[in-house]
Amino acid sequence: MEATVTTANNEEKTWGGGNEPLRASYGKMMMWFFIVSDALTFSGFLAAYGFSRFKFIETWPLADEVFTHFPFMHGVDAPMYYVALMTFILIFSSVTMVLAVDAGHQLKKTKVAIYMFLTIIGGLIFVGSQAWEWKNFIKGEFGAVETSGGSLLQFVDKDGKRVALADFAVKLPEQREALTRSHGTWFTESAEAPATYSVAEVQAGFAANPDLLIRTEQLTAKKKKTILTREESIARLGTAKYVVEGANLTRNEYGSKLFADFFFFITGFHGFHVFSGVIINIIIFFNVLLGTYEKRRSYEMVEKVGLYWHFVDLVWVFVFTVFYLV
Amino acid sequence: MSHEHVSNTKRIWFVFGLLSVVTTVEVILGILKPESLEFTFFIGLNLLNWIFYILTIFKAYYIVWAFMHMEGETSSLRWSVVAPVIFLVLYLLFILLTEGHYIYGVFKDSTIKWNF
Fold first, then answer.
1. How far apart are the two ends of chain B, measured CA to CA in Å?
2. What are the angstrom distances between the C-alpha of B16 and each of A35, A95, B13, B66?
3. Does the structure's ipTM exceed the value 0.85?
4. Span of the secretion signal (chain A) (predicted)?
5. Which residues are CB-contacts of A129 (< 8 A; sequence separation ≥ 6)?
């Protein structure tokens, strides 16, 4: 027990342990310094995101156009709402956590257990929501093409509304060879499956629809993506090299390759923190039920996991701002 | 423990209300993006982003001070946790964002189109 909770009756043994210069127990202090180091890790990621974004400041994707999905509202353009909901869920689970800590101070076992349980549920909902967000991000919505120079071209109609590849690409008579295992390259050398349409099919579909235009990654002074004229569009599409659908670590239909990489890495790392937080909360929850802390007459362990859980919420506040708002 | 073990449920709910209101304001501003804020610049950053960053710091302060109960710790613990983070993060941001901006200039003005 002395290893986890120090009691303040060891004043005479200055060098014998139990001395608390910061008036916090060893475990709590170490949790704080773990949080410091973890905060610096996340700051490193977010600063690296800022670095890459400053590098490509004129071509960076607009978050409003990327994260537009809401459950059960298919095809409705709902930027921000879903991620706002996720933020509320996480803040609320932080509240139930701090209520559990508060009940722990008063040694109310049942209350601690109930609030811990609610916190765990909140955490699970958040992780689930993030999985759904990833699913939409990976699947993509409209599709795009990448030029041989590495820039991304998206398709819009006359009014500037996005058009999906499936709406105009034609099916050309089969140009892909059916490869045998001995001749196939894509499934042995690269895990990337071929896109639904070939570049030629997209180009042919584009030529057949005179209303279509191309939108480049370049941002205008009004922070909108540049739309090319029909002639420029045709010329630009001539340099297309890949059809891009959805997102992976190599390329994505939203724009800068680094955007998807940072999205996967930062939200993934945060999601991993939430997940491990849920696991730790479950362990502590069972300890509460078993009466471990009741016997100890101290619920400080709940306070320590509480610190970690709030930290996860804190990180999300910053990720939310940097990824979705700014 | 130096702090009193009194229940402060009222304060917890107050902070929850505050964080919810701030988040709602952020989301509304993020959806509307008022032009007067988005295209007015102050020290290289538009006013909208200034608001977002300030509100973020505001929320972070309340999470750390109220939820993580930093306000109940000794000032030596407070400073030894907060000061290194603030100093290192500002330094990191300064270095990386300056460099990022420099590389943007290199891409823009030179013949290199895209190499990393």
1. 53
2. 22, 7, 5, 10
3. yes
4. none
5. A82, A85, A86, A89
Q: Which domain holds residue A105?
A: 26-140+259-325
Provide the residue-wise pLDDT of chain A in tens; the chain has 326 residues. 445 555 555 455 667 666 777 888 888 889 999 999 999 999 999 999 999 999 888 889 988 888 888 887 776 777 888 999 999 999 999 999 999 999 999 999 999 999 999 999 999 999 999 999 999 999 988 999 998 888 889 999 988 888 888 888 888 876 556 666 666 655 555 555 667 888 888 888 998 888 899 998 888 888 888 888 888 888 989 888 889 998 988 889 998 889 999 999 999 999 999 999 999 999 999 999 999 898 988 888 999 999 999 999 999 999 999 988 88
Q: Are residues A315 and A271 in the same domain?
A: yes
Residues A84 and A135 in one domain: yes
CATH at residue A268: 1.20.120.80
Of B2, B16, B52, the CB nearest to A321: B52
pTM: 0.87
Number of structural domains found in chain A: 2
Cβ separation of B73 and A24 shorter than 8 Å? yes
| One domain, residues A118 and A54 | yes
A 10 A CB-CB count for A325 gives: 22
Q: Cβ contacts (< 8 Å) between A58 and chain B: which residues?
A: 104
CB contact under 8 A, A40 and B89: yes
Is residue A13 a part of any domain in this protein? no
Who's near A163: CB < 8 A, 6+ residues apart?
Answer: A142, A155, A156, A157, A212
Q: Do A130 and A72 belong together in one domain?
A: yes
Q: Which of A23, A35, A80 sits opposite B74 (nearest CB)?
A: A23
| Residue A250 forms part of a structural domain | no
